[in-house]
């Protein structure tokens, strides 16, 4: 029965070059990795590894239950305080992924009395959060503050949340956060900023909300993943204490989910401490991004991602495969994962790349694009 149901769907995807495939990664591979999101190059740092291993020895491998039952350890509380202080927000609450942090905060604020206003390039986790929220949802053209203003002014709902990313995940461009925060404040609305690609990268690592002086405002909420610059797993919602208390009581992805596991907490905490002790790491990401952009002929990006448009999905996959054969792993993004329907090569820069790596990667990528285009 499933064969009749799903096989035609699989065939349709295949004919359009949109089939997704899993490819196992070897532990000892010798590659230049421009596809992972380990922006600060800390996922294999011995200090991060040791912190995670020590947490396993002390706390075991899992949290054992929801944070509200037995799943809260001192590591969770230390991590929440450290992240909040680093980003300049009053408090934080960690979730077991960035995806769940977004679902958790939006659904807890959503409902019939809340209008959700979402940038059209927003990450899938926020799209899904809107769908789950039972709110009216309006989508605004990318970075268009005037439309946000109009939607806020015309609403009937008492509450509204404007949602954006500080640095967008595919195009790596920035949101007009200062204007969005002012517009939201003028209309008694909340601004939610997903800093998945800002933490550890923009604002000398503290993220864009902090850099723009918007941290700590009582209508600004920040969400972050711990799976990228923090070299771990998990997510966090950062904002006023009253929000944290509300999430603990009303956020289903927090209440009904087993707490973030202790080694993930400890790894993220160790990564954050290294970032604070070695504040030049974010600058190394920007240097790498600029070199990759220059080598591949695309404009420099605000964030850690270099996004190269390709003629189509087949070419994107073929170019990524050629790069891999030549020792460079890059991502290929195809619809529906791209906001504008264009297929792309997606290169992520990280602080661990040497000048030689960057030179070699640039040459391999340019050659691969030339071969498939
Ligand atoms: C902008 C953005 N938000 C949220 C997430 C989800 O985070 P996680 O992987 O921790 O679930 C991601 C990517 O993974 C992302 O790019």
From TrEMBL:
GO terms for molecular function: 8-amino-7-oxononanoate synthase activity; pyridoxal phosphate binding. InterPro entries: Aminotrans_II_pyridoxalP_BS (IPR001917), Aminotransferase_I/II_large (IPR004839), AON_synthase_class-II (IPR050087), PyrdxlP-dep_Trfase (IPR015424), PyrdxlP-dep_Trfase_major (IPR015421), PyrdxlP-dep_Trfase_small (IPR015422). It catalyses: 6-carboxyhexanoyl-[ACP] + L-alanine + H(+) = (8S)-8-amino-7-oxononanoate + holo-[ACP] + CO2. GO terms for biological process: biotin biosynthetic process. It is an enzyme of class 2 (transferase). Its cofactor is pyridoxal 5'-phosphate. Its EC number is 2.3.1.47. SUPFAM superfamilies: PLP-dependent transferases (SSF53383). PROSITE patterns: AA_TRANSFER_CLASS_2. Homodimer. This is 8-amino-7-oxononanoate synthase. It comes from Kribbella jejuensis.
């Amino acid at each position: 029965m499933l064969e009749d149901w799903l096989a035609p769907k699989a065939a349709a995807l295949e004919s359009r070059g949109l089939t997704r495939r899993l490819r196992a990664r070897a532990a000892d591979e010798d590659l230049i990795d421009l596809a992972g999101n380990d922006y600060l190059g800390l996922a294999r740092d011995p200090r991060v590894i040791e912190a995670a291993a020590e947490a396993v020895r002390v706390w075991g491998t899992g949290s054992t239950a929801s944070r509200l039952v037995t799943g809260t350890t001192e590591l969770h509380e230390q991590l929440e305080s450290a992240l909040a202080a680093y980003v300049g927000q009053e408090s934080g609450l960690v979730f077991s992924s960035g995806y769940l942090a977004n679902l958790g905060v939006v659904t807890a604020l959503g409902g019939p009395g809340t209008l959700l206003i979402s940038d059209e390039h927003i990450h899938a986790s926020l799209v899904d959060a809107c769908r789950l929220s039972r709110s009216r949802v309006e989508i605004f053209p990318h970075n268009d503050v005037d439309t946000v203003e109009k939607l806020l002014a015309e609403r009937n709902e008492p509450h509204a949340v404007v949602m954006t990313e500080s640095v967008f995940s595919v195009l790596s461009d920035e949101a007009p956060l200062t204007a969005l925060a002012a517009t939201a404040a003028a209309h008694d609305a909340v601004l939610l900023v997903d800093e998945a690609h800002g933490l550890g990268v923009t604002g000398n690592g503290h993220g864009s909300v902090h850099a723009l002086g918007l941290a700590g405002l009582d209508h600004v909420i920040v969400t972050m993943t711990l799976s990228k610059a923090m070299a771990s797993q998990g997510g966090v919602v950062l904002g006023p204490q009253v929000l944290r208390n509300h999430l603990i009581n009303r956020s289903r992805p927090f209440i009904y989910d087993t707490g973030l596991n202790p080694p993930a907490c400890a790894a993220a905490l160790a990564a954050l401490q290294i970032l604070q002790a070695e504040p030049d790491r974010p600058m190394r990401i920007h240097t790498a991004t600029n070199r990759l952009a220059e080598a591949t002929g695309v404009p420099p990006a605000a964030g850690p991602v270099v996004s190269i448009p390709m003629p189509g999905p087949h070419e994107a996959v073929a170019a990524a495969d050629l790069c891999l054969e030549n020792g460079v792993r890059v991502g290929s993004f195809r619809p529906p994962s791209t906001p504008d329907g264009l297929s792309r090569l997606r290169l992520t820069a990280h602080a661990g790349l040497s000048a030689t790596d960057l030179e070699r990667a640039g040459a391999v990528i340019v050659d691969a694009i030339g071969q498939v285009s």
